[in-house]
Amino acid sequence: MPAIEQAEAPSEGEPAGPLPEEGVEEKVFEREPEPPTIEELDRAIRRADEGREPAVGDLVRVEYRDGTAVRGELAASDDVHIDITISGVTVRIRRGDLAQISRIPSAMERYQRLRGIIDPRDSERLFALAQWCQREGLLPEALSEVTRLLEVDDTNGDAIRLRTEVREQIELLQRASEREERRGRRAEDRDESSFRPRPKPDAFPLLGERAINLIKVYELDLENPPAMTVERETVQELLATHASHPLIPTSKEGRAAFFGKAPAEVLEIMFRVRARELYGRVRVQGQPANMELFRDRVHVTWLINNCATTRCHGGPAGGSFQLTNRHPRSDASVYTNFLIMDRYELADGTPLIDYASPMESPLLQLGLPAYDSSTPHPRVEGWRPAFRTRGDRRFEDAVRWIESMYRPRPEYPIQYPPRRVGEAVPTPTEDPLER
């Protein structure tokens, strides 16, 4: 067997390995820097906004030299003044009175930016984002992110536990909201005259039956119609005045069969032939589903108790935007308040209800905590947010109601313009339906 040669050990001071060739640099391996945390990214987003000059339309925080601060929408800006709109009221402020003005990104806006940065396959950062949403009160978004994480890593125990925790938090908020709703309904059955001053019965002009019925006709869903009636004389007038339209039968048999149609079928023909002069002749006994949703999930749950109180928009303190707070479940109260809100615009022309983006409607944003609202409510003694978060059941119900309204939005032929600040309350008429 050949002998195995023993390798000679290097002598003292001699390198143990081969020297690198002359002119070749030895590689140095460095650890890659850790990616920024969600909190660091959030702080960077805030700093970027603070350093950016606010633009007209931005939500801003204005700090006076005396340390007080207000929030609102930047309406105008020049070298001498800035104009801030707070819930429809525009205030002019001298720049010399200000210590600082900075843009405010909402929690939802910051979340959307963070979501766009994070790799949807990075389970660790998805988990951190879900926790961040939970801390910021964005519980539906937290649930969405932890669900997205579990689609990537369905065995992640921390994510499963967080999902359970967030679901329980959402459920607790919903139960609390339902308890408040029940308390509000019970309050309707009590005599509140001892602690809620009421206006005189004739002090607020209410819509009459004809106007209310007309709104019902415009808003009803023909696939799920409420109870209604169309008198024979109305059908005869429809056949006579629109005889030239292809949808109107001309034969004796066809006209006879037309009288046998259900009221909803007759109304559908009226809509299609544009027989607007006959809409008000259709008598709607029930409630359109969307208006029933408005009454039960918006009007009597938070609108009356939060917005239409005597010290707020149910009295003179409400300025140009006033609502009735009498008999909150009555058609007169429900439809009058709806029509006022449907037509009301803020000082800059923004509609109170945004049918294109319901969640961003000023009506709803004014009910959120100021730190999470694009249209924060001005500071008023005793005012409390109507919603805790955008995940609040009442907020979601209000969004669902706005989404359910008929599109494209009709213009009701009803004469009821909003009152101006300082304008006397008009004397109620028997029916404000336009003649």
Description:
With 435 residues, the protein is α+β, with helices and mostly antiparallel strands. The protein has helices at 38-50, 107-117, 123-135, 139-152, 157-188, 209-219, 232-241, 252-258, 263-273, 289-307, 331-343, 362-365, 393-404; strands at 59-64, 69-77, 81-86, 89-94, 98-103, 228-229, 283-284. The strands form two sheets. The protein has a five-stranded antiparallel beta sheet, with no helix packed on it. Helix 3 packs parallel to helix 5. The protein is globular, with a radius of gyration of 32 Å. The relative contact order is 0.10. The model is unreliable at 1-7, 191-199 and 418-435 (pLDDT under 50).
